[in-house]
Amino acid sequence: MDAYVTTLAWVAGTVAFILLSSLGTAQLARSMARVSGASPRLQQRTYAGYLFAAPWIIGFALFVVIPMGASLYWSFTRFDPPNSPLWVGLDNYVRLLTNDKDFRVSLLNSVYMVVIGLPLQLVVALCLAVLLNQRLPGERVFRAAYYMPVVLALNAAVLLCWRLMLNANNGLFNTLIRTIDAAIPPLNWVNRAVIYVVEWFGAAFIGVQQGGDFSLLNQVLRTGFPAETRVPLWLQSPLWTKPSFILLLVWSCGTMMLIFIAALRNVPPELHEAADVDGAGPLQRFFRITLPLISPATFYNVVVGIIAMLQMYELPYVLTRDQPTVQQSGYFVVYYLWQSTFKFNAMGYGAAISWMLLLLILVVTLVQFQLQRRWVTYDVR
Q1: Could you tell me if residue 135 is inside a domain?
Q2: Which whole number is the average pLDDT over 88-112?
Q3: Domains in the chain, number
Q4: For residue 149, is the peptide bond before it cis, meaning its omega torsion is within 30 degrees of 0?
Q5: Strand, coil or helix: 87
Q6: So what's the pLDDT on residue 359?
Q7: In this structure, are 371 and 261 located in the same domain?
């Protein structure tokens, strides 16, 4: 009963705070309008406008502006609650940039996903958009089916299902691979070649992360071409962790697909008709007309995709957090931020990581907006 009364008291206090703060904000806005010489009608409109906007303004200040200010201050301190923050200046940032191996590993993993995972996601989304842009029976059903993974992809239960399907021993994917290899022997060579290339590249990448320690790459080279019974190790090997994440990201590319479909629908059909009359083939029409005209959608998907890759957290948290053999290969900047802040209780150091991530995203986004002038077409001239 006491807990119930306490909850009701908190609810009543919250409602009262919202009402009083909204009225106070609106009254302050009207007073400022009066001081600036506004007419009584404009003062009344200002009051009404700020009265309805005040809940959002106050919520933004309480839950965004003030926490950001506190985080910025903590990033210059050594803060491990419940101890008080201790000012250390730029020590956290210097340590991040010069002496934190785990941060370097997580940053390179994020770059890996941006350079390799994002292009694959964009290509698959564009191919699906081109296919679903055709006027065929049942196209809406297929669109809903391809978009459904977006709704389900970050659900913990679905990720756990993927974890079971990607089990190296008896998971669904490797069971299918074994069945196909037995039924079509030539595909067994293709499967083994893909395994060899992925493991060679993954070992070389890990060697770069380790500052030039290529012992894992030498081990892969000494092992040679995979045996006939080899299957991908998926989440059980550091060489396959990031390819597993890329597989899930490609599976959930439905949002990019819908944006591409909307852009394809806005391409003027008369341009294709004129190119067809001039003798242009389907590929020429696609690369010379369609692709340049949907470049704004491509640019949007690239910018949003890069931000999403740099902020990736759910996949490594659910799929690899309790597997120490592959844990570092699943480190990403936001995952490392969570570890530093909540697992190791280094609140100040975690705040520094968050501001470094914000700066990285800001710089990358500004660079993308500068580069768009070279390849994005916003109108037909």
Answers
A1: yes
A2: 92
A3: 3
A4: no
A5: strand
A6: 94
A7: yes
Q: Mark whether 134 and 11 lie in a shared domain.
A: no
Over residues 189-247, the pLDDT tens digits come to 999 999 999 999 999 998 988 888 888 899 999 988 988 888 898 888 889 999 999 99
Q: 172: phi > 0 → left, psi -120 to 50 → alpha, else beta; which?
A: alpha
Query: Which residue from 290, 307, 313 is spatially nearest to 367, judged by alpha carbons?
Result: 307
| Residues spanned by the domain of 50 | 2-74
Q: Please tell me the pTM assigned to this model.
A: 0.86
- d(CA 243, CA 87) in angstroms, rounded, equals 41
List, in sequence order, the alpha helices (H) in 61-155.
66-74, 91-98, 101-112, 118-132, 139-152
Secondary structure element (H or E) that encloses residue 353, with its range? helix 347-375
Same domain for 227 and 245? no
The single-letter code of the amino acid at 274 is A
Residues 130, 282 contacting (CB under 8 angstroms): no
State residue 181's pLDDT score.
87
In contact, 255 and 150? CB cutoff 8 Å: yes
- Given 211, 232, 253, the domain boundary residue is 232
Torsions phi, psi for 7 (to 5 deg): -60, -45
Cβ atoms of 90 and 100 within 8 Å: the answer is no
- pLDDT classification of 318: cutoffs 50, 70, 90: confident
> Are 290 and 276 in contact, with CB atoms under 8 Å apart?
no
Do 350 and 292 share a structural domain?
Answer: yes
Contact 75, 348 (CB under 8 A): yes
Identify the CA nearest to 323 among candidates 114, 117, 166, 107.
Answer: 166
CATH number for the domain spanning 303: value is: 1.10.3720.10
